[in-house]
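Researcher: Good morning. I'm working through a list of sequences from a screen, and I'd like to move beyond sequence-only analysis. For each chain I'm collecting a predicted structure so we can compare shapes side by side. This is the next one on the list. No need for commentary yet; just the structure.
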Amino acid sequence: MNVNITAGVFTLIVAISSFTVMAQTSSLLNASFDVARETFAAVNPKFVEHWQQQTGQSIKIDQSFAGSSRQAQDIIQGKKVDVVTFNQVTDIDALVERGIVAEDWAQRLPHNSSPYYSTITFLVREGNPKNIKDWDDLVRDDVSLVFSNPKTSGNARYSYLGAWLFAHQKFNGDEAKIREFVGSLLANVENFPTGSRGATVAFAQNGQGDVLLTFEFEERNILASPEFQDQSFEIVVPPSSVLAEFPVAVVDKVANERGTQKLATAFLQFLYTPDIQRLLSDFNYRVRDPDVVQEAATRFDSLKLINPTEVLGSWRAIQAKHFATDGVLDQLQAQ
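Model: Good morning. Structure tokens for this chain:
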């Protein structure tokens, strides 16, 4: 009698344990930057359907959106995220430094684990009343800017770097002149929201600033939005701007704890498939698949894209010099 009871209890424990494992592996949390909401609202259901067809397993994908750096800090403080789809390498490096993401994350997927990318362009008001054409125009006394805070937003760090790289070309690497240029640009910022969604609201809804600096894909999506079509905003594409790659990674520490490593990896690989590359292109990202690139060739303006790491060193070096506490950004803002 006791043996039977013990066996029954053992069977029940095994069943409960199996159910717990299944529950753990049936969901995935993706942390992304705050203007990627519409993108993943479209991507996630397609992956759920794909996974069901491939494995027979029903899954759920949960989403978290905020400034890229804010997301990284939340994960460092214990937020249980399975994958990150960020817009800045430095935010993933912060997780690597704390043993949360593996050192080799960038080698796990093609193009340094960046399935899509963008650049920084300028959104101006109808008719471009300030005649904005290039980065030079953004430091004029009669121009005010809106972009998010480089301390909390990967988007804004690219805006900062776009200005720095332009000045680097213009002044042949003369750092004193580069600092003066970027300092003048920062002095023209009317609003520094924590994330790019807040910057869009400040510019498009609250009427702040003459120019919104943000990702090209976001500006194109603003133009296409029924909410803003009556304002007739215009996009100015400068002759050169920063290459803004969007890195993705499995959060290994969490995925290993939750048993979601395989699911998380498959989700990120799915972003490289032709159908999803085409979907990403429809959301105005620049993508990697050569056939989709050719299909979308007439959609995007040509410009010189400058990779920050080819001019300023590694992302860790860029982070340490420009964005760390008391770095160049803090020094220029203090002025």
